[in-house]
Amino acid sequence: MKRAYFKLGIVLMWLALPLTGLLYWQVWDQLPARMATHFNAAGQANGWMSREASLSFTLVLTAIMLLVFSVVLYLAEVRSAQGQFAWALLAFFMLMVAVIYRVNASIVEHALSGAPVEIGWVLLSVPLGIVGLMAIYFRTHRGSALPVSDADVIAVETHAGRGWSLVLLLPAIPVLGAAMAIHVPMVRIGMGLVFAILLVSAAAAWSGFQYRFSRFGLEIMTLGFRLRSIPINQIRDYAAATWSGWGGYGIRGVGDDRAYVWSNQGVRMATTGGEVFLGHSEPQRIVHDLDAMKQFVH
What is the pTM of this model? Predict the structure, then answer.
């Protein structure tokens, strides 16, 4: 039954396509031949299209977005045993579809009456949605904390991505500048949230992932926050492996599989809760620590 409701949610997203077409069709004869279709963060027009081009662009963009969202949701649902994150992803994508539809409606209203385009709440709702989605993503498969004391720790390894932290900081600079320059409260708050997300991500990459091996299992942390606990009896197998850059970097994975990686090397572990990839520049050190930890399996 839950799967049926999930599929229904995906179908409902696709209603945005005919509704967008209806939005234009109802006022087609009233629309000017040349419409403002692009606006800066202050809501000022800086790009124009014919009404025909505007409609075609909007429908194609909406269709591509819906197709990508549907594929991602399908993969998230079939690869997740509990489905908690899949439902959160569905809610987030619905929010994005609603945002895009409202932006299109605001563009049409602007073309008809010159009404200001609603930018502020868009720039606020998107980062808020991202923060909520990230919170649920980190919570998924986090597990319970292991009863580890300092005496129980076998080894601690760190896997950092200092280069990636600089990459993440680059877009943060213009975002901060825009937030300071634009005097629209909602825009400032939204761009401030985007800046905070980029700043925390850069700090996490600089600090890296900390792998704490103990006689109870493995804990993965970053910035002092526990990302995941894997009890020792849940680890089935492991071996040094390579990571494809196509998979992305940072915390990756949808469903039961997760990767914590800033490089193309590491260790792939098979656990009862899915596959886990631990990035590290010296994979044999991770294998050695896992071997030492596995001696405590009862």
Answer: 0.77
